[in-house]
Amino acid sequence: MRLGSMxxxxxxxxxSASARGDVTYVAQKGxxxxxxxxxxxxxxxxxxxxxxxxxxxxxxxxxxxIIPQVDSSASGRRAERGTIQAERYGEKIHIRVRDSHGRIxxxxxxxxxxxxxxxxxxxxVDPRLLSLVGIVSDHFGGKxxxxxxxxxxxxxxxxxxxxxxxxxxxxxxxxxxxxxxxxWAFCRTFRSAGCGYYPNSGFVHLDVxxxxxxxxxxxxxxxxxxxxxxxxxxxxxxxxxPPNPL
Length: 246
Known about the structure:
The strands form three sheets. Strands 1-6-7-9-8-10 form a six-stranded mixed β-sheet, covered by helices on one side. Strands 2-3 form a two-stranded antiparallel sheet. The protein folds into two domains: 160 residues, Muramoyl-pentapeptide Carboxypeptidase, domain 2 (2-Layer Sandwich), CATH 3.30.1380; 56 residues, LysM domain (Membrane-bound Lytic Murein Transglycosylase D, Chain A, Roll), CATH 3.10.350.10. The chain is of the alpha+beta class. 20% of the residues lie in helices and 24% in strands. The two termini are 20 Å apart.
């Protein structure tokens, strides 16, 4: 494992059989609010209201939807979404991303900050990053996630002068059993995020930012960036090429 890397297992935990609460579900291609409602035994009207949508709305693939008041006994494993189980150097951590009111919990941010640390150094994590990581984990069924790099302290020698890694806004990772191309494709569905694919370094980069961006960097670890031309990307970015991608 590379210096500064850390392993994490993201999975969903079993809840109380009689528990009810809101869960997050990532819409798949071709799904309707009615079809999603049948999965959770929740009316499409309730889903539309919880997400401020029209009842006739067609959710976009990759769109995260709040499913209100789900009965865990009826929905099975899907009702367990939103809880992260993490392991780093034998240190096991369970993170419930949101509290009972649907807000990012303070203790979840602290636990994720500890997971993202570089040695003894850490930095407050942007709540948006934790939210996206939870969505990615749910989408891929809670499969093992290996964090290659989280928080990194600033050094004058770093290739990107204003790295999101320095600000608790970026994560380099891969998921066991999932091709990095598939992971990259899903992360690129997020609106205000940067997503980079590093085929020769073996990981995907995800960060939170104000505009959407995606790129391919063929550099090896420790090498300067080697970006593919922007026109080689499968989707358009809001920028001509990824400024300060990391």
